[in-house]
Each structure stands twice: as structure tokens, then as C-alpha cells.
Amino acid sequence: MSGADTHQATCQCGQLRLTAVGDPDLVMACNCLACQRRTGSPFGMGAYFRKEVATTEGEPRIHSRVADSGLGVSIRFCPDCGTSVYWTAEIRPEHVGVAVGCFGDPGFVEPARVLWSQSKHPWIKFPDGVPEFSKGAPRPAAEG
Does 82 have pLDDT greater than 90? Predict the structure, then answer.
């Protein structure tokens, strides 16, 4: 991926869309039970873009909850097809998280870290060298 790329994420029916210009600041795989339930999959993949490079179209419904970290997250999903496309989270207030599968791009960048490995399905294998955290990741201020 290069910094000039434009990425468009859409729900299944196309009603809800997010377009981001440039590469994500961070891509993470999360194995927490909430992400498993949100995606219907053994883990969720999120790409985090700065809010100022992202634009949205369509009318989302919003589901807000407190994450296992104790911080809030608000997920935007399509009221027509139910796909959760993007979210905002208190832990990354300057970013919007986007469900990587909504980009429809099998060549999308691999995760830079794996979260909540304590609830990872034992048959899931992530690329060698990708750091895994038993619970959540370090707070953004601690990132290098």
C-alpha cells in the first residue's frame, strides 16, 4: 500500500460507505469475545485511519458499549443489511476504525498486532513476528 491509495469500505448492500485516503496508521486483529460476536467470526480486523482522511456516506445505526478495556466504543452499522462498517473508540479519539473485510481487498495489509489472544481460537495462526497481547494493546501514548 502506498500513502496515495484511496480505500473504500462498504456494507453488503452498499448503503453505508467509508472512504479513506492514504494508508491506515494501524491495523489490528482482535480476538475479544465482543469482536467475535460483532463480526460473527473468530476475530475482527480493524484498520485505523485519522478522522480527517475519512469521509462517510449513508445513514448508519449506532451501537455504543463499554469495551473490556473499560473505554467506550460506538459501532456504526447499516440498518438495512446489518454490516458493521466503522467505529470510534475512546482509546483512539483521533481515529476511526474500519472493518477490514468491508474493503473487499484480499491484499489489504496484515495486522501490526494481535489483541486479546487469551480468547483466540487455538487453530487461528497470525503471521510470524506480529506481536500478540493477552488482553488489549498498550495505550496509544505508549506506542513507539
Answer: yes
Q: How far apart are CA 61 and CA 109, in angstroms?
A: 28
Query: pTM, whole model, 2 decimals?
Result: 0.89
Q: How far apart are CA 47 and CA 13, in angstroms?
A: 21
114 has which bridge partners? Answer: 29, 132
Question: What average pLDDT does the segment 12-16 reach?
Answer: 97
Distance from C-alpha of 82 to C-alpha of 79, rounded to nearest angstrom: 6
